Amino acid sequence: MDELLSRIESPRDLVGLTNVELEQLAGEMREVLCHLVANRTAHFASNLGVVELCLALHTSFDFSRDRLIWDTGHQIYPHKLITGRYHEFGTIRSKGGLMGYPNPNESEYDLFMTGHAGSSVSTLLGLKSGDELMPGQEDRHAVCVIGDGAFPSGIVYEAMNNAGFLRKNLLVILNDNQMSICPRVGGVGEYLDRLRVNTLYTGLKSEVLKILNKVPLLGDPAERFLAQLKEGVKAGLHGGMMFEEFNFRYIGPIDGHSISQLRKYLSMVKDVPGPVLLHVVTEKGHGFQPAAEDPVFFHTPAPFTRADEGILAFKKSSSKAYTNVVSQAIHRELSANPKVTVMTAAMCQGTKLEKVREDFPDRFFDTGICEGHTVAFAAGQAKAGLRPIVDIYSTFLQRAYDQIFQEVALQNLPVTFVLDRAGLTGPDGPTHHGNFDLGYMRQLPNMVVMAPGDEHDTEAMLDFALKHDSPCSIRYPKAKAELVEGSRTPIELGRAEVIEWGHDGMIIACGTQLSEAIKAAAQLREEGHDVGVINARFVKPLDTETILRAIETCPFVVTVEEAALMAGFSSAVLEAAADAGVDASRVFRLGIPDHFIEHGERGELLADLSLDAEGIARQCRHMASQQQDAPKPDRRRVS
């Protein structure tokens, strides 16, 4: 089945293969990708689209020495297949296996762990300038591949501005498949569309520019006029004039699925002085018709079985996720209040906002992969009297931190942040785990920080936030929605919910690990330990009255959060105890320690961190046994 691919141990094994053999290899690589997605959820359409480009790059450069960065990185699978990881490929995105993104710990061919979009041109320029300052490294080629969905990111233009000024020799390959994760939006995409369909330019550019480039740039004054005329004709003919203004030589567009054409152009541009932008047109999902026809759905599809005529069946879960709960609640809020708007940064599909986009097109805004702009945009809407909701993954919102501070919190504007994928995102790994939002949100004045315990809290908190006159943050995981049974107290600013009080100890759950805390308490009660549960709900303002009462009166307290312990909820608890002069020596904190968490199924990772019911119960038993052996401390407040 993998006649050629099984023999590729490194890109050196590609040397000597004909274009026909490389085409055969491309087909084998696509078959491996299809087989992978039959077994697990993985990035699919984007990887199908870069197979030929990957092979052309590795047969045109020596990336054991030259530099290659894949922007965003979720299209790294073909690269991994030919850089010594074919035999491990079936482990990708599973615990202990290959990462679904570039990983320098796996291979010398992976330079950065890239999971966010737009930084490749900056890091590539840094590598090139650094190599030129290192003796013996000056001749290294520098190449990055960046998609048209990532290309509108502001940092790209900061980097191009700097690269054009420094005039370093680097090659930026614009992989144009007319898509982000969802259909791309914005003026840059429309500009690329015009370049791609300009058949007059495509047909004439080669011969005309060949002639123009032979015209020398000489002295004064007629020669200066001739030079200006040359550049003017080039600009009028040249579709890539925007890039030329950054001092990038624009070449393209070219067919990204023709290995022979790609190799020809890569050979031609590799020694062109100064920065070059090579515009490559690809098809997302190329080679697998269902993915090519619906690249949005097949970005990360559920596992499926396949037949010659197409797809037989998907392995789907009927469980409702927190993302669905929030998207439905957003739809209800837009239906009820004409001042409510919602915006997302190229993640309409991931945040399940398709129905919102369809039913409220005037109040739904997809800003592209431009998180900082999104938040500042929301601030402007809030200043105008609207109630904007910013729906962005926790890990991606980090890219907009300055705008959260400057444009929202400092102005005390009522922007509601709903942070999808908070906590551990499972197979996506450390680039996507949303572990840090509690810390980076709660330190900002005016910001209200909430962590719903279940589906009921999630819906009620969104309603609360849209009626509250200051910025609010609501986090929730990529997980099945849970619903705690029994009567519930309403959401009230800075008030926790006591699920059940315990005289032997208390578990304080911050967020959707509430259900696991309740299960742990039930186990402990069966064993004779009277352990209660508090649903914290608010990280800021903290319910110090309820929490300090638990610390003062209960033999032990265990805090639980699916977030970084440093600066997170439990840090807020210890700060409150210190400020009140309360002894917190019997408080134990369960959460995410001060290191990056690798990829794996979310349940596996939670168990490793003792954030499941068994782990919480185990820690409570340990605290109870310690308490039995220790003298009773005086936890009263110091006056």
CATH level 1 class label of the largest domain = Alpha Beta
Under CATH, the topology of the largest domain can be stated as Rossmann fold
Structural class: alpha/beta
- Compute the number of structural domains: 3
Q: What is the number of helices?
A: 24
Strand content: 15-25%
Helical residue percent band: 25-40%
Q: What spatial form do the alpha-carbon principal axes imply? A: globular
Largest sheet: 7 strands, mixed
Mean model confidence by pLDDT: 89
Structure description:
It is globular and about 75 Å long. The protein has 3 domains: 5-198 and 239-293, 3-Layer(aba) Sandwich (Rossmann fold); 322-475, 3-Layer(aba) Sandwich (Rossmann fold), CATH 3.40.50; 497-629, Rossmann fold (3-Layer(aba) Sandwich). The longest helix has 19 residues, at 19-37. Helices cover 39% and strands 15% of the residues. It is an alpha/beta fold and 639 residues long. 48% of the residues are buried. It is built from 24 helices and 19 strands. A hairpin with a 2-residue loop joins strand 6 (304-307) and strand 7 (310-314). A 7-stranded mixed beta sheet has the order 9-8-10-11-13-12-17, with helices on both faces. A 5-stranded parallel beta sheet has the order 1-2-3-5-4, sandwiched between helices.
Label this structure with key terms.
single chain, 639 residues, alpha/beta, Rossmann fold, 7-stranded mixed beta sheet, 5-stranded parallel beta sheet, 24 helices, 19 strands, 39% helix, globular
